[in-house]
Design goal:
seven-stranded mixed beta sheet; alpha+beta
Length: 861
């Protein structure tokens, strides 16, 4: 047997291009990565300087600029073909050949230079060789903290390859802080006479066939005596350098000079970088790290990059999560003109609730504390990975700013006035929820005009529930274009939030998915508050400005007018009309009233028709819930249901004649049992057509419903599903009653209750699973009680009545924590019962779930 040789891997030089130019998404992102390096070097400042004056095509240039072009290698003859001297400056000639213009633009495009400068601790030769020149170094991943105590923003060890994304050539001058590096004892003995280093690389050297990375090198030379600040004054014009407030001494630091730039950096693109840097770090009162952007092309336009603090908002949330999975939430209201709200509004019983009194409005905010489980009710019970433990500490600041409003809405909801255009401009620049880790933004979350702007999927929530703010059924969701905010996490406390290697966002693991769902639930606290107030203000407005006559009085009046009009037509039919003027006037008035009354009658008919359609939709909604829960189980049986019993009977007949069991009881006769099974098979098969069955025409007619028979059929329809899940349905406590109701309404109520119970049993270890439906009556009411012995309403639901709100559900996806149920089941139960003048009451047994539905006796025959 031959000996085994171990051979090393080789890395292609093209790797530098893969993890630099091709891996980092944008040039703006590359600049931000290099700014982070200055932060990690404990620099108090980072300067991004675009020397782009010479690379831009000008229609007019002063004399000194022409000389600068010549000094940079642009031929004088070429300049003279484009510009002519006039009034102490050079102006563009007329009718210049387009090829000459193109040649000039190509020539000057190479003259743009980008500098990224910091006043950090600099690098020694040891750091340059072992950290800066090592791909994927784990230095920052292991040593989280800088010497001043900052948590380092970098971690992957590939940030320096951002240089390749920006330009072909790079020159780095670094002057190290001798005191800082002496403490680390990593100064070489030869460095006692060295103050810094010049490092040069040409990224084009990494191109070429069969070239491996160890054969490509950068140049490194020591600088015996170097004054960094004097070098900066040569690079940055004095009128720009003066913009740097509280300028450090620059006794040490790093200058990165990137030339042969790959992108066009005219003023439009520089402005985009400035905007990105404005949201790179979260706004705060004191900055320990200042960022400046300077441009030789636009010397007056830029300067210190200042984050914008939002002080013109309608609502603000401040949420802080601790290490025990508790979140303190503060909701600040700034939307309402409190002085203009009448005292009668606050006197309403609905405004006596906690957080909604006049004192609460004057205070301007309210606070609450919620656990992760309360924010995502139902998730903890299905999450075997204990994902909540992995999320960690975070802070969330959220702003809601409506862009505009109508005058009627302003009066109805007592809005404060605001400058609409200013808000639109601010949201255009700072809108979106940004994610920050250790005081640095994680791109591209919340970036305007980026696909990740709505990374929390607020738009999808709005599309799924487009209800208006004052919708009486609830369901209001905020629009992503009207919000801004910041989420702060840390590498120390949120260890499961890992960077993508592209430095564009975090890895989409389960922890991050649940985190996003948790943030959306915190936003829902604001949505619920704003919607409740809007509904009450809308009701108050309706009460203040409603007509004196009630709707019933108006309908009676319309009915009388219509009857009178029809009677007059019948009486006057065939008679000749008179020329009496007063009678004509009276006739015209009567006709006008009759037209209005007739329109009202047609409107009532249209409303009734729409109600009928609504009942159909309810039935279909219930059908959808059932089918979504059980269609998978049923589909597996569908192909064999029709024929399997007949096949079994045929095989038995070959051995035993059917007449053999003629005198046997049915329960001991296999042929009878097979017929029963066949009947059940056909019922199961018919479940696939359940949605059409639920909406059939006769169920939409109010008719006499015999309750014992109805629930006997109900149990029969569900029998196979219940048996397969070992659930016993008890309907023995039903009185001999009948009601004149829509059968489809009862289908919607009890199908939804049963589906919820079955889902609850699937998540529990309950033995002897049981459901009971009992019905009794007294002199005034018919009372239904539905009970099960399952796990009951989740303990995470603080207020059980919330289960009746539309779109509320505790069914959660085990991986993302997102809501899976429709959230319509219990809302249908309540709304249908109340539409039939009934009442719904939750009961609170020691174990399980129970609900009581009470209908007035008028529905009894």
């Amino acid at each position: 047997m031959s000996s085994i040789n171990k051979i090393p891997f080789k890395v292609s030089a093209r790797t530098a291009r893969l993890i630099g130019r091709e891996n980092i998404a944008t040039a703006k992102g590359a600049i931000i990565e290099l700014v982070k390096n200055g932060y990690d070097a404990d620099s108090p400042v980072s300067i991004v300087f675009f020397d782009n004056l010479l690379s831009t095509f000008h229609e007019t240039i002063p004399r000194h600029l022409k000389q600068q072009y010549i000094d940079k290698g642009v031929e004088k003859d070429l300049l003279d073909k484009i510009y002519t001297y006039q009034d102490d400056e050079y102006i563009l000639r007329k009718n210049i050949d387009e090829n000459i213009i193109l040649a000039f633009k190509n020539k000057i495009s190479k003259l743009s230079v980008l500098y990224i400068i910091d006043a950090g601790e600099g690098m020694t030769e040891d750091i340059i060789r072992n950290n800066w020149m090592t791909i994927g170094t784990d230095n920052k991943a292991i040593n989280y903290f800088t010497k001043s105590g900052r948590v380092k923003a970098g971690a992957k060890g590939i940030g320096r390859f951002a240089l390749d994304k920006l330009g072909s050539k790079c020159e780095m001058i670094t002057v190290f802080d001798r005191n800082s590096h002496d403490r680390d004892t990593n100064l070489d003995a030869s460095e006692t006479s060295i103050s810094g280093y010049r490092w040069l690389v040409n990224w084009e050297d990494f191109e070429g066939d069969f070239k491996t990375i160890e054969n490509v090198s950068a140049e490194l030379m020591g600088l015996p005596s170097f004054n960094l600040k004097e070098e900066l004054k040569k690079i940055i014009p004095s009128h720009l350098f003066e913009k740097i407030q509280n300028c450090p001494d620059f006794d040490h630091g790093t200058i990165l000079k990137i030339s042969d730039l790959r992108d066009n950096w005219d003023d439009y693109y520089v402005e985009q970088v400035y905007s990105d840097l404005e949201v790179l770090v979260p706004p705060k009162e004191t900055n320990e790290f200042e960022i400046y952007l300077l441009s030789s092309l636009s010397p007056t336009q830029y300067g210190e990059v200042l984050g914008s603090i939002c002080d013109d908002f309608d609502y603000k949330i401040i949420a802080k999560a601790d290490d025990k999975q508790n979140v303190s939430i503060k909701i600040i209201r700034n939307e309402y003109d409190i002085l203009s709200i009448p005292s009668e509004f606050f006197s309403r019983s609905s405004m006596q609730k906690k957080h909604y009194t006049k004192e609460d409005f004057i205070k301007g905010y309210w606070e609450t504390n919620k656990s992760f489980s309360e924010l995502l009710p139902g998730f903890k019970s299905v999450d075997s990975d204990k994902t909540f433990d992995d999320i960690g500490v975070f802070e969330f600041t959220f702003y809601f700013l409506k862009r505009t409003f109508t005058t009627p809405d302003a009066k109805r909801f007592f809005y404060k006035s605001f400058a609409s255009n200013s808000r639109k401009d601010w949201l255009q620049k700072f809108g979106g929820v940004k994610l920050f880790r250790d005081n640095f933004r994680v791109r591209p979350y919340g970036e305007v005009k980026d696909v990740a702007f709505d990374w929390l999927s607020l738009g999808n929530r709005k599309a799924a529930s487009p209800a208006g703010i004052a919708n009486k059924e609830g369901g209001y969701r905020v629009e992503p274009e009207n919000v801004a905010g910041s989420i702060k996490i840390s590498r120390l406390t949120n260890v499961n939030f890992e960077d993508k290697s592209s430095r564009e966002g975090l890895q989409e693991n389960k922890t991050f998915q649940i985190f996003k769902t948790l943030i959306a639930s915190i936003i829902n606290e604001f949505e619920s508050d704003r919607a409740y107030i809007a509904r009450e203000m809308s009701n108050f407005d309706d009460e203040r400005y409603s007509d004196i006559r009630s709707r019933q009085e108006a309908e009676e009046l319309a009915k009388r007018i219509l009857e009178k009009s029809r009677a007059n037509k019948s009486t006057e039919h065939g008679k000749s009309t008179t020329n009496n003027q007063s009678k004509n006037t009276s006739d015209i008035k009567d006709k006008e009233l009759a037209i209005i009354a007739e329109l009202n009658e047609k409107k009532d008919e249209e409303i009734e028709r729409l109600k009928e359609e609504q009942k159909v939709l309810r039935g279909l909604a219930s059908s959808g819930i059932v089918l979504a829960s059980f269609s998978h189980d049923l589909s597996k049986l569908n192909n064999v249901l029709e024929s399997r019993v007949d096949k079994v009977k045929k095989l038995i007949k070959e051995k035993i004649d059917e007449a053999t069991y003629k005198n046997e009881e049915d329960r001991k006769n296999p042929y009878k049992l097979l017929e029963k099974i066949k009947t059940q098979d056909l019922k199961i098969k018919n479940w696939l057509n359940f949605s059409l069955g639920a909406a059939r025409k006769d169920k939409r007619k109010r008719k006499q419903l015999f309750l014992k028979k109805y629930f006997h059929d109900f149990k029969s329809d569900w029998s196979s599903v219940l048996e397969s899940r070992a659930i016993e349905l008890d309907i023995s406590q039903i009185e001999e009653l009948d009601m004149r109701v829509f059968e489809i309404d009862f289908d919607s109520i009890f199908n939804n209750l049963l589906v919820n119970t079955i889902d609850a049993f699937n998540l529990s270890t309950t033995e002897n699973r049981a459901i009971s439906i009992s019905i009794k009556s007294d002199s005034r009411s018919i009372i239904f009680e539905y009970k099960d012995n399952g796990p009951g309403i989740s303990k995470d639901v603080v207020n059980p009545e919330v289960i009746f709100k539309p779109l509320f559900t505790t069914k959660r996806n085990i991986y993302s924590g997102e809501e899976e149920g429709t959230g319509l089941g219990m809302w249908l139960v309540k709304s249908i019962t109340e539409e039939n003048d009934g009442k719904v009451n939750l009961l609170y047994p020691e174990k399980g779930f129970a609900i009581r539905l009470t209908f007035p006796i008028k529905f009894r025959r």
